[in-house]
Design a protein that fits this description.
17 helices, Growth Hormone, Chain: A, 414 residues, mainly alpha, two-stranded antiparallel ribbon, 75% helix
Length: 414
């Protein structure tokens, strides 16, 4: 049940500062989130782990980080609807920046895991709060341009993470990410809170009730579909690209695959893909149609990644780039989630959805390991089966998702 609120002019506040902070916050968010994947092997090697031991510890640390994202997503989402989008935006930036710096001092897997959990918890809040704030400040027919800017600037953080990790020690790479995040706190005073949030706050209506998403069957499935659309994205990043050195060996790639280069290539592709998907969405005046297009491209890209053998390093990295171009609908799918729900629950949805998608790497990676261990599948065929599972669910969820382009966001859920 939705309550339509009398329209006010919320666009009189220039959202430029909000777009800037959300973009740069997402830049540091992606930098930190993917930095671990880039420095996974060298950092674990410096802690005395190699081979299968390093792979198992790497998956463990990745899952710990993703667990932090899931828990943090709920915490920051509820806080965003209760206390405001700006509180979450800068609170999360502060927490993950400090955790990043702490990561540079670790000397054991246990301390590494602790700070990856804290970093994941902090990272959970920034993107959802930033997108929620920006879409509520922008005119309804221009929201896609703003989120495209956030995507284009933000995702380039992975490319920068690669170059920083390449030229500096892994500890210094973590220190750099922390310093970048702390610098963003200087912009706090220039960002205005959403007018829509101010109105719902003064109304006295209950806000940020996470469990209300499960109390109504229709609302629950709408929420679930928002999450499931994004599964192929983080199956690719969290498994195919993070484990690209292991996949490269099995596929007979001619040369040693570097996870950092693979991540830089794939996120270079994501920058282009996210910009294209955002602009095409504005041109077609549709979010759902564009996600269909990019999901179809993702099918082709995953098939190419898993079943093309004996590639050169250049060819393999090109496939990684194409995969992430095709999966370049991350911020677009997050915009869909933000537009589906009312102002009193919007931050909760927009913050939890991407983190549940990221956290889905945990069951997907466990499924991959289960198929390999108990059915004796090769890495390639186990990866293929998990990919089919993720893609099938995503297409089914998208078919049940309502078009939200130019929807008036000035309403509340009851």
């Amino acid at each position: 049940m939705k309550t339509i609120v009398t329209q006010r002019n919320f666009t009189n506040v220039l959202p430029i500062a909000a777009i800037l902070v959300a973009s740069m916050g997402y830049f540091v968010d992606i930098y930190d989130l993917l930095l671990f994947s880039i420095v996974r092997l060298p950092s674990l090697k410096s802690l005395g782990l190699t081979g299968a031991q390093a792979t198992e510890s790497g998956i463990f640390l990745l899952n710990i980080q993703m667990a932090g994202l899931i828990i943090g997503g709920i915490f920051w989402g509820v806080l965003g609807d209760k206390k405001g989008r700006i509180t979450v935006l800068f609170g999360s930036i502060l927490l993950y920046s400090l955790a990043n710096i702490a990561n540079g001092f670790v000397h054991s897997v246990e301390s590494y895991a602790l700070f990856r959990f804290i970093a994941g918890f902090g990272l959970a809040g920034e993107l959802g709060a930033g997108v929620t704030l920006v879409v509520e400040l922008m005119p309804k027919d221009k929201r896609g341009y703003a989120t495209t800017i956030i995507a284009g600037v933000g995702i380039s953080g992975a490319v920068v993470a690669h170059f920083v990790a390449h030229y500096f020690d892994w500890r210094n790479a973590f220190f750099t990410g922390g310093a970048l995040g702390l610098c963003l706190l200087l912009l706090r005073l220039s960002v205005a809170e959403s007018g829509m949030f101010h109105e719902v706050k003064t109304s006295g209506q209950k806000r940020g009730d996470f469990f209300s998403l499960f109390s109504n069957t229709k609302q629950f499935f709408k929420y679930l579909n928002c999450i499931l659309i994004g599964l192929p994205l983080w199956f690719g990043v969290g498994i195919l690209i993070t484990l690209s050195p292991e996949f490269g060996k099995v596929l007979g790639v001619k040369g040693q695959v570097n996870a950092g280069v693979a991540i830089a290539c794939c996120y270079g592709g994501t920058v282009v893909g996210d910009v294209f998907s955002g602009l095409i969405s504005q041109y077609l005046k549709s979010r759902v149609k564009v996600v269909y297009i990019f999901l179809s491209l993702t099918v082709i890209a995953i098939a190419a990644y898993l079943f093309l053998n004996d590639l050169t390093l250049f060819q393999f990295y090109s496939v990684c780039t194409f995969f992430e171009f095709s999966a370049g609908y991350w911020v677009l799918f997050l915009t869909i989630a933000a537009e589906q729900f009312g102002t009193n629950i919007r931050a909760t949805v927009t913050t939890t959805v991407p983190n549940f998608v990221r956290g889905a790497v945990i069951p997907l990676s466990l499924l991959l390991q289960y198929l390999r261990k108990w059915f004796d599948f090769s890495l390639i065929y186990a990866g293929g089966m998990v990919a089919v599972f993720a893609l099938t669910i995503a297409f089914l969820a998208l078919s049940r998702t309502k078009e939200t382009f130019s929807v008036d966001l000035n309403f509340r859920e009851e």
